[in-house]
Amino acid sequence: MIPWPQRQTLPASAEALRDEVRDFLAAHPPAPAADIRARSWMGFDADFSRALGQRGWVGLSLPREYGGAGGSAFERFVVLEELLAAGAPVSAHWIADRQSAPLLLRYGSESLRQELLPRICAGEVYFCIGMSEPGAGSDLASVSTRATRNDQGWLLNGSKLWTTNADRCHYMIALVRTSGQHGDRQQGLSQMLVDLSLPGITVRPIRDLAGDAHFNEVFFDNVQLTEEALIGAEGDGWQQVTAELAFERSGPERIMSSIALLECWCAWLRRSGGGSADRRALGELASRLAVLRSMSLAITAQLEQGESPVIPAALVKDLGTGFEQDIPDTLADVIGRHDDAFADEELMRTLAYTAMVCPIYSLRGGTREILRGLIARGMGLR
Amino acid sequence: MSDSLFLDSIKPLFADISERFSGESQFDAAGAWSELVATGFLRLMLPEQDEGAGLDVTEGLPVLMAAGYCALPLPYAETALLYAAQPTLAADDQALAVGLSTTAGRAKALRQDLPYLQALLLDTAGGAERAAVSDSDSGNWTLQGIPSPCETTINLQLLGTAAECLQLAGALQRVLELTVDYANTRQQFGRPIGKYQALQQQISVMTGHCHSAVMAAQLAASGMQRSDTGLSLDHHRVAAACGMIKAACQPVVSTAHAVHGAIGVTEEYELHHYTRRLLAGRVAGGSESRWFEQVGQACLDSDASVFDFTLASLS
Ligand SMILES: Cc1cc2nc3c(=O)[nH]c(=O)nc-3n(C[C@H](O)[C@H](O)[C@H](O)COP(=O)(O)OP(=O)(O)OC[C@H]3O[C@@H](n4cnc5c(N)ncnc54)[C@H](O)[C@@H]3O)c2cc1C
């Protein structure tokens, strides 16, 4: 059985950051239009990321000797939820902050840590995650991109798909095969640091159904990596990726993706009145938000204690992304009861955007079905 | 004593009373109540000056949930919370619950299936009243004598609903455990049925509902602050949490019964004790819509963003 969640309140030191972040956001205001803010963690703005880095809020929980602020996971939680609630454009530094930096801290060589972590914390160096491939989606262990040892290090060949920000970031951490064959599954996989400016790399942006281009196809044609590019131990890639996913799966970003729509609608409701069905919908969504946030915070407490709550994190992600998807669903229904809502163009644009892109919430970072398989394992069914 | 020591020392009695209730044709409810009184656990959340154990609701929560986990057929959680809300109510160790007046001289408890009750707390135009009751006719209790005024200013409807919901959270835990055990035990097509992905996915969703409800119960408990003079309720936090627990009941009941197949609908198998309770409890004191609507109204009235309202009033 998965352990029952234990409520955790934020320590005062973390809560104290909230006003500071709000002051910062007042000086660096996110886009005024709700349908732009709705893109939040897909919104790329290097100036914003650097300004955040100057405040010490990128890599906040990394040790000071690597440029971090030596803060707690709770402090990071507050900064994240405030940025997301405001719809700030956090995409540039997001992946490095969330998973690449902790991964490098844990498995990277000392020289790599010295070289990269301070620049990540400054909000200057951005990362992407090269896991998925054309033939390896949910079945991640079937990746076929390969790094072969040679006298200068590793020679990389193959391709990655759906790589968020590959076209505008500096490094990829790629899961690749370093030994064995396709059929060897989890064995023989390793994580490689790939400098995306190296020769032999081609990046092709892919446009999404809302017209945005945030993910990419990446091709590797005899890309020469140094010996140093190997992160952690050769053959340990699978275990490292699994641990990394606990960071990826339970944060406030798995709850807040539709918050711009929810706020835009609530503001409209205050102006226009609305009825019992609207109040019920608002009350339900706010109540779910409160409970999910507490669950996410409970996972944060476990991460802070150095645990790796992979399965509880999958549970929170499954619930959280369901909530994010129910927001446009519920609101389309209640908004559609009021003729005058159609005249509010910002509201209707935000609804249309969120409703159209929300299927991705339960795809990225592992699909709903895969997460539910993990939960079933945690419950002792597999 | 730590929380779990409290729990370990009372849970066997809860389970024993529950077993007697479902197993014996002549269940001695008054006798079982006296046993509960003798343990002192009704005073779990009373201050020490009132011979209580002085626990906060958060500290007492595992015990309150255990009443639901064990399908305890007595108003233990209701009474313990009412004593905490108004310590003078504890004076004569009576079995209490929050009720609603129905026809003249009659009232219902929020929880309908209670076999035993000595007095109901009723909200009337003139304030809270305590009415002695006797003889339940399918949940309709006969009022005895003239109700006496009760000093409390607490929102009785919300307190009664919360007492119910904390027990429902315990019942949800029990139903999840029964369902997982059954899925791992029952074999069809040569394998435990829990090996089939269709059931795994349903049980995973059910797990999510139950975990949300358990977190909601903790939020509700944290919204019930105890002082030496009684409880004060953080209205919206408790209401939101109750709504979440109630919303979990129907989907969990559906999946539990689906996974159990025919055995789950028999009188003999224990599942129905909990699922009946979940279905009735969802409605008792008001369904999720009732509480969610209040939360929504409060959010609109607050003038804050939904996020800020959630932080300030629901978390
Ligand atoms: C916006 C966005 C950004 C992304 N960014 C990145 C990124 O930066 N880096 C990266 O590496 N990847 C990224 N991804 C890829 C993402 O991780 C994959 O989409 C995801 O793992 C699913 O793979 P797939 O799309 O190939 O779907 P498939 O694996 O083909 O799945 C299709 C359907 O089949 C179901 N399915 C598959 N296997 C099973 C099974 N065993 N049991 C039951 N059902 C199953 C799935 O649940 C799904 O419903 C991104 C995706 C999106 C949408």
Automatic annotation (TrEMBL), chain A:
Keywords: FAD, Flavoprotein, Oxidoreductase. One of its GO terms (molecular function) is flavin adenine dinucleotide binding. GO terms for cellular component: plasma membrane. Residues 235-379 form the Acyl-CoA dehydrogenase/oxidase C-terminal domain. Residues 14-124 form the Acyl-CoA dehydrogenase/oxidase N-terminal domain. The keyword Oxidoreductase applies. Residues 128-223 form the Acyl-CoA oxidase/dehydrogenase middle domain. Belongs to the acyl-CoA dehydrogenase family. This is Acyl-CoA dehydrogenase.
TrEMBL record, chain B:
Residues 165-296 form the Acyl-CoA dehydrogenase/oxidase C-terminal domain. Signal peptide: none annotated. Pfam families: Acyl-CoA_dh_1. Its cofactor is FAD. The keyword Flavoprotein applies. Keywords: FAD, Flavoprotein, Oxidoreductase. It comes from the Bacteria. One of its GO terms (molecular function) is flavin adenine dinucleotide binding. InterPro entries: AcylCo_DH-like_C, AcylCo_DH/oxidase_C, AcylCoA_DH/ox_N_sf, AcylCoA_DH/oxidase_NM_dom_sf. Belongs to the acyl-CoA dehydrogenase family. This is Acyl-CoA dehydrogenase.
